[in-house]
User: Fold this.
Amino acid sequence: MLIGVVGGTNTGKTTFFCASTLVEAEISNRPFVTIKPNQGTTYVKVKCPHLEFGKECNPVNSKCVNGVRLIPIALLDVAGLVPEAHKGKGLGNQFLNDLMQAQALIHVIDASGSVDAEGNPVAKGSYDPGESIKFLEKEIAYWIKGILTKNWGKTSKQAAIDSKGPYEGLTKNLTGLGINEEEVKQVVKREGFSLKPDSWSEEELLEFSEKIRAKSKPIIIAANKIDVEGAEENLKKLRKDFPDYRIFGCSAESELALRKAAKAGIIDYVPGEKEFKLLKEDIPEKQAKALEFIRSNVLEKNEGTGVQEIINKTAFELLDLIAVYPVQDQHKWTSGTGAVLPDAFLVRRGSTAIELAEKIHTDFVDRFIGAIDCRSGQKIGKDHELKDGDVVKIMLKG
Assistant:
């Protein structure tokens, strides 16, 4: 799974990425700082099953902090977007090509309204951040439409005469975007598009492009700089103006400062928590004041920085992922080397036991003979749908 961090240039997009991953990427208050995409690992938070089991876990592919399991997921920070990016303006073509890898998008906007559409600093509150929401989705839709309609005359006619429907034909030009035939089929049927795509108007082509983006690459809005004057009022307005959108306030700069301080051993801080504990008293006055500002103006006021909440909601609501834990010993919940609950995997809700086996190792599919639900002790088949938090033993032949 890959989550893309997207948005206009100079909105705090790369700060959000750095705060989430602690990957060192260049951050500056000017347009087009990010040119090549930055990729790193962030974590989602879930309750660790070891609390229920009564034994300390020994994580290998993840982390556990005070009973909170931190499970890795890939994050991609791509170049900033400006209006008419689909025509190649700014770094538009690169931005759009990079984001096609992602399964979901976190759209970072400047909630304080202090950056215009081109990424230039302006007076606080002078730019409507709602315009950023509109233009990004418009740019992606026009870009998808452009890809979809390459050789449209031939493609649409062939799709229209396919006895199984137009779905395979429509998907051919979109597979490079990570869009599959089932998603195309669902959009066509749900939205009532004609099964004869050669009859679609330009408006219908654009509408289809908007709908297939929403289906294949859902977006969550990170209203950044929530601690800046005027941002809270803008957030309320955004939620009123865009009632169907998931919009959450955040302070990426505060989260980055806290994670760096925690890494340096200055504070005890778990991402997403509403408080931190100071571990050192003899720190520079400037840093002490900054931490106290974050405590009182971000954590207490907004119940956290919002960054971890946005990552979790992207994974568990937009992508509908669940966490599962494969083990070799169903009684002790251990690996072959005796590690308790060593691995945690994120899979789509509805994933089956054999799909988990394949995720662990592709060779396991041919060797799969069954699985065991370690809580109930019951044997489960290859088509058994896994539940969030399941601890599973995969049984293999040979």
In short: The longest helix spans residues 130-148. The radius of gyration is 23 Å. Confidence is low (pLDDT under 50) at residues 25-35. The longest strand covers residues 38-47.
